[in-house]
Here is the input.
Amino acid sequence: MKNKIMTICLCLFSAALFAQAKKPSLMVVPSDSWCTTNRVMEVYYNQGVEEYIPDYKLALLHADLMNVISKINILMADRGFPLKDLSATMKSINKVNAENSQLTSKTSGAALAESPLDRIRRAAKSDIILEVDWQVKSTGPKKSITYNLRALDAYTSKQVAGAQGTGAPSFSAEVAVLLEEAVLVNMDSFVNQLQAHFDDLLTNGREVTLDLLVFDNGSGVDLESEFGGSELIEGIDNWMAQNTVNHRFNKSDATETMALYEGVRIPLYKANGMAQDTDGFARELRSFLKKAPYNLDVKIVNRGLGRAALVIGEK
Here is the structure.
């Protein structure tokens, strides 16, 4: 009887993990096109190069956008996909920014170095970003809306689901109502595409990218250095094969000083049941390289949700 109860508990626990894994977090944001049209782009100079990044804080002052996001949140929640709210998330980020602005170095008085892109990355912690764009057209007293809704994997920036179309002309003047009427036609197909992507994540793992680099510090260690009778890159390849889901990864480029691993399928969960991410997976590889026979110092550079660099030689 005791064994039967334990088996039932384990099944329920596994089912709970399965359900959790099938529903990564989502967030609706306005597309870059919508932000450009409505002049809510932030100018950022990246090493002298002018770049434009959506200013979500300013965009949220548009009543139509707030209504559209709320409507999509409701439509997705009704289908079992609760979403993170962009407005609430930005308020939390603004609070953190205010606190960070008060942090200074005790020695030099320097403030924290942070770009607008860093702030956006910190805000967009969702696994899937739903980008929405729309245009309202008038024909006499009636209005119609043309929309584009696409789901992007935040780790790879690949589109994993999409829906677009034009709604039937309506006497309604509310953008959210027009959007709902237009989106409902394709919503089931959109949700099915999302579900298929979630099922793929569960079966094949999350796709990330790892860069292996070497510090030019005169140590003489590079990816062709031999340890225990085999090159360092061979040891890393073997570790990747053993720790990726179904041994799936692609070493798309490699020299004696660098290696690029793309399509690296990492488990959704660590052995202890905690959620796995790119940074955590990179740290596991670093732990491997710190042990014999390698005994190497490795610096990890986080390059976003889906990419990390490991620099071998020192921290």
The chain has nine helices and 14 strands. Confidence is low (pLDDT under 50) at residues 1-22. The chain has two domains: 20-97+115-203, 205-312. The two ends are 54 Å apart (CA to CA).
